[in-house]
Amino acid sequence: MDVTLAIDAMGGDHGTTVTIPAAVEYLKQFPGDTIVLVGIPDAIESELRALGVQAGPRLRIHAASEVVGMDEQPQSALRGKKDSSMRVAIDLVKSGEASACVSAGNTGALMATARYVLKTLPGIDRPAIASYLPTKKGQVCMLDLGANTDCTAEHLLQFALMGSTLVTALEHKPNPTVGLLNIGSEDIKGNEVVKQAAELLRGSDLNFYGNVEGNDIFKGTTDLVVCDGFVGNVALKTTEGLAQMLGGFLKEEFKRNAFTKLAGLIAMPVLNAFKRRVDHRRYNGASFLGLKGIVVKSHGSADIFAFRCAIEKAAEEAREGMLLHISEHVEKWHHERQKTEQGVA
Predict the structure, then answer these.
(1) CA–CA separation, 269 vs 260, rounded Å?
(2) DSSP alpha helix (H) spans, the chain
(3) Residues 196, 151: contact at Cβ < 8 Å?
(4) Which pathway does it take part in (predicted)?
(5) Is beta strand 207-212 parallel, antiparallel or unpaired with respect to 177-181?
(6) How many Å apart are CA 62 and CA 250, to the nearest integer?
(7) pLDDT tens digit string along 279-296?
(8) How many angstroms separate the CA atoms of 161 and 204, rounded?
(9) 202: phi > 0 → left, psi -120 to 50 → alpha, else beta; which?
(10) In which element (H, E) is residue 131 found?
(11) Handedness of CA 190, 193, 199, 201 (dihedral sign)
């Protein structure tokens, strides 16, 4: 199925110099899809000229006169910039002119705008941010990664329902395992919210594995890890910081003297293979789950390759009908819960 994707061409640390080349590269791989570049026409046309590419039916330009700054307050962007490239790209999703939106812009502004314009799906109180991380076994989906710092047990259950559906849709796993991030695997561990969430998950139709600890994330113990946005964001940033530190240490050690430089050259094939395996750019693209539209957030500093990965993720979600799957799963869960409660009454 061919899809149409709205790209916030002005978003991110690098703007059009990354978003437009990435979109052009994407269309080379998926020529049947359509990209709508949303932003200031002069800036977009200038970048297209630099690439030697012309706009056409599969690569359209949609004008927007404003740009949301990376450090701008979400409410300021929401109320004061109704013609921003971010807002207009989301509007295209709402109107049905695009199947999904991709932006590398301000995360807070993107979430606030997407939630205001698209609204949440029935049965979902709050949208959550989900993304994939590499593991020893392949990859793991994790949410929430920062949208909700304070959550109830019910919210964590909703995150699990949405995340499980995402894994099923994108990885074609019919019954993915769900882990609840905690400070121990025992049922007695954790705060009251986590304990209550575990009870709700055990009573759901999800394949609940149980509590998982931080080291289980990269072991690949479960297909999905659920937590609140405060914990998820801390875990994500800690992981990024650790990876950068280890990479820096390796470079320092291999550059220490002539012998270590020679050792580095000999080990280069292994180092390159390792780098490809843990390349964070391949996992770029966080999904805003729970909205009535597909919105994928790229890392703000993403390069062309990483932003193209985010576009691919948005297209895949649209092609797999993820919104419909989440709606059906949540509706089924609420129906089953009502039946259970009526039976108890």
Answers:
(1) 15
(2) 16-29, 41-51, 74-80, 85-95, 107-118, 153-171, 192-202, 214-219, 229-254, 258-266, 268-277, 304-319, 322-344
(3) no
(4) Lipid metabolism; phospholipid metabolism
(5) parallel
(6) 45
(7) 888 889 999 999 999 999
(8) 9
(9) alpha
(10) strand 128-134
(11) negative
Q: How far apart are CA 266 and CA 271, in angstroms?
A: 10
- Indicate the pairing of strand 100-103 with strand 294-297: parallel
What does residue 258 show for φ and ψ, rounded to 5 degrees?
-60, -40
Tokens 């701008």 correspond to what residue?
72
- Residue-wise pLDDT tens digits, 292-325: 999 999 999 999 999 999 999 999 999 999 999 9
Query: CA–CA separation, 266 vs 254, rounded Å?
Result: 11
Question: At 34, which helix (H) or strand (E)?
Answer: strand 34-39
* Cα–Cα dist 269/249, whole Å: 18
pLDDT tens-place string over residues 102-158: 999 999 999 999 999 999 999 899 999 999 999 999 999 999 999 998 999 999 999
